[in-house]
Amino acid sequence: MQANKKNLSKKIGYIDESGDKSIHFEKGGVSTFFIVSAIIIDENSNSRVREEFRAIARKHTQAPEIKSSSKAFRDIDKRINFLKDISKLDFRIYSVIVDKRKVFEDSGLQFRDSFYKYVNGLLDHELYDYYPYLELVSDNHGSEKFMDGFISYVEKNHKQTELFKGPEFKFSDSKEEPLIQLADFIAGSIAKCYEPDKVEYRSKEILQILNRHILHLREWPENPPKLFRKIEDGDQKYDQELVDFIFFRINEFVNANQNRTEIEIKNQIICLNYLIYRFKKDPYEYIFSDEIIDRIKIRDIHLTKRLFSKEVIGNLRDNKILITSSQSGYKIPCCKGDLIRFYNNYSSKIIPMIDTLGKTDIIIRSATSGNINLLEDNDYKLLKDLIETSASR
């Protein structure tokens, strides 16, 4: 599956962060999470989305600038209502969410500069995987000038390919650019699902409202996965050993392939990212193939369900990544029940096919007085054994 670069539409990403650079998160007023969110909009839709956001903002507040931290949105009910309105707009969300406590405890990144260089690398690797033609816009008065470091990193480290010829960056005043305000509000709202002193009783609704817009919430460190739906220790349905093995294999695959430029590999990683996000949201939920194909389609790559099953899911399974399926869709399995449904799904297709072959063989032998008996050929010995086993059930 190849993409024609002439058909790749240009996207504009408005980027903002929530949290601070301090590594002294044990102090009061210092965030434990650092979150960078990019709001991605098709260049052809940019003006329309900007005007629609302005209209929504005027409906909710008279303030000249929308800011997530403003007094107007400290009330969680008002924030939820605003999110419901902006969720009607046409944009996508990609976020990197870093738990600073785990980074500095476990990873060996003991210095702030090394930490932010690594975050820059995460953004570079994954954001441009989704959008080869991407212009990024950031607030020129942004706190800590995070984008300065990201721009420097990309220009120095990003590998140019046939589809990606170089980064485009621009700074703008958030007071004059409403879509930077949108990025600020999304980043701040996602923080309310993670930052311990910001989580509220309705925080879980935030990701539910934004769900159809989310490409990936890239948590780091990510293994073991953080679940948005809490799994009780005594829940026998959830198999931690199974989940740990699957995520070990996923991490191996991503680490081995994240620098490859083949479109097929990019599609597989996009698929994995979305399956991971949905697993963390609800490990028991299945995802229809249309939803995953829709995430791949943002790269102007159009897959049929058959090609998706063969080239994306099939190749991931060939790489020993366990993805189960049923009539309800695809998922990363978390319990024995998922595996049973997977086996049942294939059994319901395979066994009738075997039975049909057995009936066909009887008809052929009857019609030819036994002169044609294909199942006696060594080439069909395994098939004959399967037919006889099925018939003896």
Q: Output the CATH class name of the largest domain.
A: Alpha Beta
Q: Can you tell me the residue ranges where pLDDT is under 50 for at least 5 consecutive residues?
A: 1-6, 161-165
Which series of helices and strands comes N to C?
EEHHEHHEHEHHEHHHHEEHH
How far apart the termini lie comes to: 42 Å
Average pLDDT, rounded to a whole number, is 84
- How much of the sequence is in beta strands? 5-15%
Radius of gyration: 25 Å
Main sheet summary:
6 strands, mixed
Relevant CATH superfamily of the largest domain: Ribonuclease H-like superfamily/Ribonuclease H
The helix fraction, in percent, is: 40-55%
Supply the helix-strand structural class: alpha/beta
| CATH arch. level architecture of the largest domain | 2-Layer Sandwich
Number of separate structural domains = 3
Coarse shape: elongated
Q: Tell how many strands the DSSP assignment holds.
A: 8
Within the CATH hierarchy, at the fold level, what is the topology of the largest domain? Nucleotidyltransferase, domain 5
Strand order of the largest sheet: 5-4-1-2-3-6
Number of helices: 13
